[in-house]
What does this fold into?
Amino acid sequence: MDALVCAPNNSLVRQSLHACEGKTATNGDGFGLAWYGDREEPGLFRDLRPAWSDENLRSLCGQVRSPLFFAHVRAATNTATTRANCHPFVCGRYAFMHNGQIGSYRKVRRKLEALLPDELFDQRAGTTDSELLFLLVLARMELGAMPGAAVGWVMHQTKRLMLEAGIAEAVRFTAILTDGQTVWAFRTSCDGHSPGLYLRERPGATIIASEPLDTLRDAWSMIANNSVTTVRRGLGAVTEPLVIDGHSWPVAA
Amino acid sequence: MDALVCAPNNSLVRQSLHACEGKTATNGDGFGLAWYGDREEPGLFRDLRPAWSDENLRSLCGQVRSPLFFAHVRAATNTATTRANCHPFVCGRYAFMHNGQIGSYRKVRRKLEALLPDELFDQRAGTTDSELLFLLVLARMELGAMPGAAVGWVMHQTKRLMLEAGIAEAVRFTAILTDGQTVWAFRTSCDGHSPGLYLRERPGATIIASEPLDTLRDAWSMIANNSVTTVRRGLGAVTEPLVIDGHSWPVAA
Amino acid sequence: MDALVCAPNNSLVRQSLHACEGKTATNGDGFGLAWYGDREEPGLFRDLRPAWSDENLRSLCGQVRSPLFFAHVRAATNTATTRANCHPFVCGRYAFMHNGQIGSYRKVRRKLEALLPDELFDQRAGTTDSELLFLLVLARMELGAMPGAAVGWVMHQTKRLMLEAGIAEAVRFTAILTDGQTVWAFRTSCDGHSPGLYLRERPGATIIASEPLDTLRDAWSMIANNSVTTVRRGLGAVTEPLVIDGHSWPVAA
Amino acid sequence: MDALVCAPNNSLVRQSLHACEGKTATNGDGFGLAWYGDREEPGLFRDLRPAWSDENLRSLCGQVRSPLFFAHVRAATNTATTRANCHPFVCGRYAFMHNGQIGSYRKVRRKLEALLPDELFDQRAGTTDSELLFLLVLARMELGAMPGAAVGWVMHQTKRLMLEAGIAEAVRFTAILTDGQTVWAFRTSCDGHSPGLYLRERPGATIIASEPLDTLRDAWSMIANNSVTTVRRGLGAVTEPLVIDGHSWPVAA
It folds into this structure.
């Protein structure tokens, strides 16, 4: 994994200290790695330390080969610096990570958690909006929704509860989800300011990242706002619009 | 503080490695310290490390004088090892710590959390039953209940929800609460097996501990089961029965 | 790896909380894992937390397959609880771990460190006697000594410096070393009280452990005191006496 | 202490995330606090986490009053992120912290450590050049040197060993030392590029900091290069030149 996580010019480890595009330049509030191996469920390795100083992360990336993995560095936004609040989040064979946030999250957290079925509520280990959005999406998928439709439903419910609570701030959701076989990349927000998400397709490999990992800017394309991109093993990436409550975002608040 | 936390024969630091009476001999899943100084709100220092190896704890205890402080070493029971799950818990000027547990807590956690008012729900930083019981007691006190009555109400509600969920295991509650002026020590359980709590009154000092801190066994008296002991500054300790839903525990399940 | 580290009846994770045979029952001062994969140098994963509460350790063991790995739980003996002081230690393609200690280590540490060549002194990351003994053995091997002879030389020098410093306590050395291909297990001490080391040979696997990992006591044989056992891939274990300065230990102090 | 550590416009906690003047903008590799209370020896509180996310630091600063304390945030330069490598360093009643570094430190570390007497070598808990310089200064003071002369001697020896090792890089030493009564602030370097150090004298308080803590730029004066500033309780700060081997630095390399 270190060919992608540690080695590139603008690697994730480097981004922990100096991200170029993110809202926050320093992402020192922990990191995480989820990777798929021989089992259906992914491995998960998360720690509180800044990624730039963690020898375990470097050693693990140097040893493990994986056909599919997620890596993340965190800049906390008002929730605690704990392992359970670090991305990626894992539930069964699913892994998920998220950039963005629910504006004034504390005011709607409780009502959003109330939408979780008991089994998924029990899986909640941390306190972030990101983990909550992940579990809500899974809850909708368990009822039969496709990932894009599930995200659309969750965004709609989130915005509805935010409006009910008088929150004028936006919900922004740039995220990746996988079941270990297929990857879905989402980029949406009610105000049109979704954090960036870049795609690079190489022979034999597809890379999705919040910033290009190298200086070949032309090789990276920005994933469109309000869309879901599906990457199946051995097939190219397919991007479709994301439909939220019958409308495309941004909506007038 | 180290005259009590680090120095005695059976100090808390020593108990982290070899507790004599507790259900668990090793209490290595973090520790915590809450102390009152010049401000109304207490200081709080908690960490994940075993207390026996933490230099910060030793140094802090060696420097700080406090007329009233709580110290705790934790053995986790099915909840994560995080700072936010370490005792004591602090909310405003209140501090609290707890030995015991809610049997099959996961099955009633959600229903118990639903009893919290929004403001106190927002104060919930961790995932333990202990923190939840603390906030429920505070919620009842905010409605005007005295601490003993508040604990009685919370025990009654907890047992009621446990029975509704078909839980045969017990709820056990040996705990200390303070507002910075008065200390209330509780010892109750629905099956009569409350973890121990000892009291020692010396001229100018009252000590409450889960095990005697020294070998003067006669100087320590066990606090009675199903009681609340109130210690006011400069006054002796007063013990009264704890009334739970009109009855004293143990009750027939 | 979890078939050996986490799953057995008396697994290493369990031993972190309740070791049966060791000098210390609780081994909560960190843990470590070194494993060989596709590269010549091993992966290394060490953390300060007690092994029993570390989700990363469990997840990693659940994912990684390795034909050769070392795992260790630590009970600190007078040196700091840091990652760099956790076993195994890795240097180049070598990995090493150790039970035992140099009596009154502080009094001879400096003189022992002076025996290290500059390159290996630069590899010293922590402060333990164990890492120092590892590097001294490597230093001797770089001069052409076989592992058994290198250990013999290091034990002799250590005892000599201890005697010069007036130290009556013993040096005890139960240790395992590997270069990724061959494993050498050592058990020696100047007073005959070497910590235990057990061997189990199964078809296709050789296990060396400080305590039997399961209840099949007969399947495990204690490695003899003052010996070195060599395990080559695909070949059985061969035990030979360890010669220290022309004599076998124990020696009269 | 939080009036100085947490509250100001450009507080140390803020500098951990965005320092203005330092060589490194992010100082997220741990922090430390040494403070004097009722005892002769200071309290010491250090942790690995970035200062910006540590609740313990905030709580401690909110409770403790101290007439004299040191606080530091660290950006590691090639030595491990451990508590023992975080500033301040404490030895007996002395506390010390340092900005700057010994160029190509690894090449002279061993020779510099050889200058330490045994008792101070035993006090060495970490691996940084900063702690080593501190102990070397104390060693010289134990032989009767005044702090300024001790620093001069240590700088001279350091530069000498660097030259012998063929190191062209500089040694830079901006540091503060105290015995709990008097504070000495040093600023020197062989190339004239000493990290900055600012002094503010207010009625009843003297503040020394690597950056002004507030926007009153005129109230802060830069301590001169190649000088030692002595602050005695109740007396003003006195600055004198620092003499290194009969010369003032910068010297021709």
Q: What stands out?
A: The two ends of chain D are 42 Å apart (CA to CA). The mean pLDDT of chain D is 89. Chain D touches chain C through eleven residues (CB under 8 Å). Chain D is about 25% helix and 25% strand.
